[in-house]
Amino acid sequence: MKKHSIFQSFSRKGNCLDNSPMENFFSLLKQEVYHGQVFHSYEELERTIVTFIDYYNHRRIKRKLDWMSPIDYRKEIQNAA
User: Fold this and answer.
1) What are the backbone angles phi and psi of residue 76, rounded to the nearest 5°?
2) Helix, strand and coil in the chain, % to nearest 5
3) Helix (H, G, I), strand (E, B) or coil at 78
4) How far is CA 56 from each of CA 7, 9, 17, 59, 78, rounded to the nearest angstrom?
5) What proportion of the chain, given as a percentage, has pLDDT over 90?
6) Are the CB atoms for 37 and 68 separated by under 8 Å?
7) pTM for the complete prediction?
8) Secondary element (H or E) of residue 42
């Protein structure tokens, strides 16, 4: 892994909060996509995940982001700077 500059973990030692954004995302992915769903192929699963990631980033609004999607919120911040 070192040879290819790949890091096993970006978490700081003893700080479980470093990974909380991804844990939250995976929790939502499981709740909104996987729960009760049967996938018949890897390709079907992959398409579903890619579609959810697009939805999550571009269309899923969040209260803590002033009712904007993550992409729109980031654009708003960049335009304000």
Assistant:
1) -60, -45
2) 65, 0, 30
3) helix
4) 26, 24, 21, 6, 20
5) 60
6) no
7) 0.70
8) helix 42-58
Q: How far is CA 48 from CA 2, 9, 26, 62, 68, in A?
A: 32, 26, 14, 21, 23
Q: Which amino acid is at 11?
A: S
Instruction: Write the pLDDT tens digit of every residue in 32-53.
Output: 998 889 999 999 999 999 999 9
Cα 43 to Cα 2: distance, rounded to the nearest angstrom: 31
Cα separation of 71 and 35, whole Å? 26
